[in-house]
Amino acid sequence: MEPHVFQRDGVSLRIEFQGTEFGWEGRLFIEGHPTLQVVRVLNVCGLSKGQARSTIIRGCEAMAANMLRPEAGDC
Fold first, then answer.
1. SS (H, E, C) the chain
2. What pTM was computed for the model?
3. Residue 15: how many CB atoms within 10 A of its CB?
4. What is the CB-side half-sphere exposure of residue 14 using CA atoms within 13 A?
5. Closest CA to 27 of 50, 66, 59
6. Backbone angles phi, psi at 50, to 5 degrees
7. Looking at the predicted structure, is the pLDDT value of residue 73 above 80?
8. Residue 17 burial (CB count, 10 A)
9. pLDDT tens sequence across 19-64
């Protein structure tokens, strides 16, 4: 799958997708943030490749919004 790139509050974010033995994994990279966040979707959910991608994107976008809040601290 092609990476998904988006902006939130002037910060660039990139999600890279990787198939694994259990399903799909999305790795969220946030510009200027020292850590990598991972979202996994299991094969047992019965999702198509496109549905897995959409699910990972929604999860990563929600996680990024939470992490970029000023009151989120150094999480």
1. CCCEEEEECCEEEEEEEEECCCEEEEEEEECCCCCEEEEEEEHHHCCCHHHHHHHHHHHHHHHHHHHCCHHHCCC
2. 0.81
3. 23
4. 9
5. 59
6. -65, -40
7. no
8. 19
9. 999 999 999 999 888 788 899 998 877 888 899 999 999 999 998 8
The torsion angles phi and psi of 11, rounded to 5 degrees, stand at: -105, 135
Contact between residue 25 and residue 39 where contact means Cβ atoms under 8 Å apart = yes
Cβ-based neighbour number of residue 20 at 10 Å = 11
Q: Which two tokens stand for residue 43?
A: 């094969």
Q: Which two tokens stand for residue 27?
A: 């790795």
Which amino acid would we find at residue 1?
A: M
Query: For residues 67 and 33, is the Cβ–Cβ distance under 8 A?
Result: yes
Tokens 């660039």 -> residue: 12
For the chain, the structural domain boundaries read 4-72
